[in-house]
Amino acid sequence: TLGTQTDYRDGEAQTDPYSPEYIVRGGSVPEILTLATLTWGRGLPAGQAEMEIIDRIREKRAWEAALPPMDSPSNVAKRLKMMEAMERKEWAYREEEIDKLQKVHMEVFKKLLQRREENRNELNATRLNNHWQNHQKAKEEKIRKIQHDCALMLRKLIAKRKNCMGKLERRDIIREYNDFSSQTYAPLSRIGFFPDNNSDYYAVKNYYVNTFAGLCELEKSVQPSVFPFKIKAPKPKCIITKTGYIKRSGRLEVVVEQVHQ
């Protein structure tokens, strides 16, 4: 039901409320016409700010109705004084509105600055983290290289320690052939051995296969009963005469047989 209400509830298909045509009677000014500038989504439904505007409009209409007529100098002076007081009141209200708008702008500006500062701090933290990770990788690589060089030097020192006195040793052929990691089975390139130069060393080279004379000699050594092949000629599908000509009736029979199949 939640999904159905989400897809088909009234709010999804609601349009602007219908405003019928109206006729104003002569000599009357309906109060509701003062709200004609408000539309749905722009002032409607009315909130606290709209209610304050409506109250100010009512006060102004009551003030206009209370203005004295301009039939005497005293009434004119009184009317001017009331208008000046109303003008000062409107300017004070306008200043108050401007102060409120400035406060709202300042709050929005503070939030934007705070958000920008947070984004900048997050970006700086990400950069520092990446920089630290790169330094850690370089450090680990350097440590790995030092450990590799250390193991290499230790192996060299161990090899030198076996013959620390520098005595000459005779070659032990049995030990070399018994050890599959010796120079006999796995010679090194630094002593002048390059296995790619002798890549065809283990390739099979046969005189009877690689040369024409060897093929001829191999053919002579094979028994004659191997060479003759017994191939049976297929029977013709059509009726063939003695001269080798296929009759028209024979061709038609073959076509009819194929269509029947």
UniProtKB/TrEMBL annotation:
Keyword Glycosyltransferase included in the entry's annotation: no
Keywords carried by this UniProt record: Cell projection, Cytoplasm, Cytoskeleton
Ranges where the CFAP91 domain occurs: 4-156
Location of the protein in the cell: Cytoplasm, Cytoskeleton, Cilium axoneme
InterPro entries reported for this sequence: CFAP91, CFAP91_dom
Residues spanning the membrane: none
One GO CC term on file: axoneme
Family designation: Belongs to the CFAP91 family.
Descriptive protein name: Cilia- and flagella-associated protein 91
Organism: Prunella himalayana
